[in-house]
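Reviewer 2 asked us to include a model.

Predict the structure of this chain.
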Amino acid sequence: MKMRKKLIAVIAALVLVVALVPVAVMAEPDMASRSLPDSVLVNEEFDVTITLETTFGNVVETLPAGFTYVSCEAGSNMPEGGVEGEITGIGEVTFTFFALATPATFTYKVEAPSSPVTDAAFSGVIKYGSPVTEEAVIGDETMDVVSVEPEEPELKELVFTGDLDKGVTETFTPDIPAGVIDLEITLTATADIDLELWDGTTHVIGWHGEIDSAPGGTYQDDTFEYSGYKDGDEYITQEADGPLGRAYTLKVFGYKAGDYEVTVSYTIPVGVDLTPPEITITAPGGTVGSPVTITVSATDDTGVAHIWFGVWPSDYELTYSQEDYQYVISMASGPGALVSVTFTPSSANSYYVAAWAGDTVGNWTPEDAPVTATWVVTE
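Predicted model (structure tokens):
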């Protein structure tokens, strides 16, 4: 009898211990989730993806006002024809599905409204099992409809290669524009060739520059990391997060003769102006011995800083080098948005004007793509 009482007491104790031990309980997965794009254009058709954790049932989706259901299509772990959609109310679509395994997916196509919408809200429920269980569809709930494609920052990447003689400087175009971020410049060379960064006439980075050694430094508001000039590879990177405060001209100098490759990359944030001024040339025809006035004007959203132009005979092709100055008939330059020159043609011929302009944030007409206009002088 005593033994029986002791056995009962032991069993009771064991039951109590088991009852006190925590047991891990696996959470039930969400039976349906929705994936939406962040934004679409007005009147654009787009896909909504539903991911399922059950093999059969119904999903009832309520679309935002102005959105139109188009079609549906079976996805992963679902046979062809494994989903059917039916409009069952105003803005309501019921999808009946059958899957072979989970997780399974299907998509349904929707047309966006013709006007922009912010935070258009989707909602829905899934009905499954026996007896029927009803749960909310989780996941993405809102999206935007926009009238134009949202702009995104642009990554710019440039590569320059060549060979330099000793004591020669090579200048690269275009300039690195003001307002860009994440600037990285790398040089690989077979000899002692040095990177140089210039702000107009100021030698900012490089041998004998304002910043001439590692680890770099700050020029006005722009901070750079610099490898220092050396016999071999060099680099210049933008150290601060903010945009460049001005445009820079990139050069390489051949301390010794050799081959080089320079890579340049930077990001152009949305809204940064990289467009040079728009140029208009007024070049009326004339006669030999009579004065002719050539006028070049320019416009730009940020303001025109400078205009330069020259006049050449039509049979001369620009080389974009010092040679062009040997054949120029007349030229003019100056600050502001309008520059003109008056001269007297000495011979009947066809001539052309080539013009360049720069704005106040450093955007210039490309050196090898001036704006041109042709005019004729008669006897």
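The CA atoms of residues 278 and 299 lie 5 Å apart. Residues 1-27 have pLDDT under 50 and may be disordered. We have added this to the supplementary material.
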